[in-house]
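ok so i was messing around last nite and threw this chain in just to see what happens. nothing serious, just curious
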Amino acid sequence: MASGGSAIRGSRVGAGPMGEQDRGFHADRIKISYWDALGNETVRYFAASLPDEEIPVTIDCPSSGLPAGRDKENPPSVVKLEPYKTHLAYVKERRTEEEADSLLEEALNQLRVRRGKLSPTN
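result:
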């Protein structure tokens, strides 16, 4: 005779008279739709007993990978990624010495004005 495991033959593991209504297909569920910026709809089901604070406001849409929100009219915007810049691109963006000096002087004057050590006319 072959035997194995501790489950009674014909029974489902984990199922029982207590708690079966609280999970699986028998539990009361609510349907919530999420929309991304491209108009894709994703439907998720949550337990009806779950408080509103525990239901996520946004999710990642499996269709597009974009964030999706519950408001169809105002979905989260598409994330704008900046392209990778090389070191040379940053060097080209640097200001000249004259521009740097004028910016520094302007910032120092603003600080002096805020501290009241210099009148704004100077």
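not much to say yet. The CA atoms of residues 46 and 111 lie 55 Å apart.
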